[in-house]
Amino acid sequence: MSHINLDKPRYDQSTYLGRAKHFLLLTNPLNAFASNSDLEEAKRIVTEFRKSRKLPPGYDEDKLWATKYLYDSAYHPDTGEKMFVLGRMAAQAPMNTIITGCMITFYKTNAATAFWQWVNQTFNAVVNYTNRSGDAPLPTSQLIASYCAACGGALSTALYLNSKVKVRNQIRRKRRK
């Protein structure tokens, strides 16, 4: 019988360092690249350990916890379903880096600004939907309304601010002449 409790975080959540370690392991971008067979194996190991409370052959405490964090990064905590890979928290850092880089690079036309704002809001919606509570399902109409409001707000704000920056830059150029 093992003393390990996989139903609680490994690190002390009352300290900053404990919370940081926990979430760094949970959101590790490398977890997004785990194969389906690795994820299924992690699920099997975690499920078997919870039933038997015995370390599987070839596993020590560190390897079991690494397997548990891989499992937690890919399976919804309420439903137990495997989550869409781009909606997992492990995909946040690489995806946001790509999207933000594109938003910073492609801003000169309204079409590019609108496109990358839409991509960003769509990605945010995918992450939020993937990580939603399994206890209280939302009506589809509310999800669509929220998505449209987020996209509309982001697009209008970005286009408005871009227009103000362009006007300001034109005024500056005229003053220099």
From TrEMBL:
Taxonomic superkingdom: Eukaryota
Molecular-function GO terms, alphabetical: monoatomic ion transmembrane transporter activity
UniProt topology in membrane: Multi-pass membrane protein
Entry keyword set: Amino-acid transport, Membrane, Mitochondrion, Transmembrane, Transmembrane helix, Transport
GO biological process assignments: serine import into mitochondrion
Compartments reported by the entry: Mitochondrion membrane
KW Mitochondrion (keyword) present: yes
Classification via InterPro entries: Mtc
GO cellular component, one term: mitochondrial inner membrane
Family of the protein in this entry: Belongs to the sideroflexin family.
Protein name, as recorded: Sideroflexin
Organism of this sequence: Euphydryas editha (Edith's checkerspot)
